[in-house]
Amino acid sequence: MRQFVRFSLSCLLGITLVSCGQENDPKESLPKTEEPIAAANTNLQIFQVRGEIKEIKPDGKTVRIQHEEIPDYMAAMTMNLEARDTDLSAFKPGDYISFRMLVTEDDGWIDQLQKVDAASAVKPPTELPSRRGSFRLSRDVEVLDVGDVLPDYSFTNQFGKTFKMSDFKGKALAINFIFTKCPFPTYCPRMAQNFSQALKQLKQSKDARTNWHFLTITIDPETDTPAVLEGYAKTYNYDPQRWTFATGDLVEITAITEQLGQTFWREGGTINHNLRTVVIDGEGRLQTILPSNEWPVEELVKAMISAASAK
């Protein structure tokens, strides 16, 4: 069934959400955590963090935590985090905890969860109104089903040049959404890394045609200017002939995200969002939807090869 959207609530129910931090408002600052602990592995950062459990997922390893600010790394926010070497049956929503957050270049998890007294725990920050208010204005759009044609949106690339979706006609097009201040490796960085790896595999594949392209769209156009996006793209060794980073008017970004099932909103100085990657075929039709961040890169490569061959 199609859904028509005029105004999007800043918080949507029924969707598994992830959060990534942006700037932190001084009014909601929390007591500072310790500095990163030195680790034998120089690629590993370890942070001591406190927060409140909001939800424990049915998989028995994922816990949604509203945590304090992590100085020089991440603003206070709410995140789904993988707990390793931990029996989550001993915890419940509402528990205040301390834990270790371990971060490498391409992975992140938590361990050593311990309950702490509510009186000594860091209380979650008071949620502040979004800088854009509780609603977002967007065009009237339909949520797309597989097989539907994506409208001809207009954006600005990392070089400051305007382009339209129709410029990719005849090519398989993979689209994902990020913002450059999202630091946790299994969130936006993984989305970018997946594209980087898929691009490399497609170039090396004997089965792949040459009519394909990748498009990464920011959900934070205020911060992610073309120059910022170009710098971000370079960290992933991108090929500008094959991979475009884009910003644009918030109305356009909101519309395309709502059509493709990508949700995002500001909450207390952070950007909350889910994760979604889609593949469009050469005729502009939605062919494949890859939700979350757990799919293998090979699945995206296979979808791109199929979309490039579609008629």
Can you offer a commentary on this structure?
The protein is an alpha+beta fold and 311 residues long. It folds into 2 domains: 30-115, Copper binding periplasmic protein CusF (OB fold (Dihydrolipoamide Acetyltransferase, E2P), Beta Barrel); 135-309, Glutaredoxin (3-Layer(aba) Sandwich), CATH 3.40.30. It contains 4 helices and 17 strands. The strands form 4 sheets. It has a 7-stranded mixed sheet with strand order 10-9-13-12-11-16-17, sandwiched between helices. Strand 6 (96-103) and strand 7 (108-115) form a beta hairpin. The chain is elongated, with a radius of gyration of 20 Å. The chain starts with a strand and ends with a helix. 39% of the residues are buried. The model is unreliable at 1-19, 21-40 and 126-135 (pLDDT under 50).
Helix count equals 4
- Secondary-structure element order, N to C: EEEEEEEEEEEHEHEHEEEEH
CATH C-level category of the largest domain = Alpha Beta
Domains, number: 2
Q: Output mean pLDDT.
A: 82
Question: CATH topology of the largest domain, what is it called?
Answer: Glutaredoxin
Number of strands: 17
Helix content: 10-25%
What is the CATH homologous superfamily assignment of the largest domain? Glutaredoxin
Contiguous low-pLDDT stretches (5 residues minimum) are 1-19, 21-40, 126-135
**CATH second-level architecture of the largest domain:** 3-Layer(aba) Sandwich
Which term fits the overall shape? elongated
The major pleated sheet works out as: 7 strands, mixed
Calculate Rg over CA atoms. 20 Å
Summing up helix and strand content along with how strands pair, one would put the structural category as alpha+beta
Strand ordering within the main sheet: 10-9-13-12-11-16-17
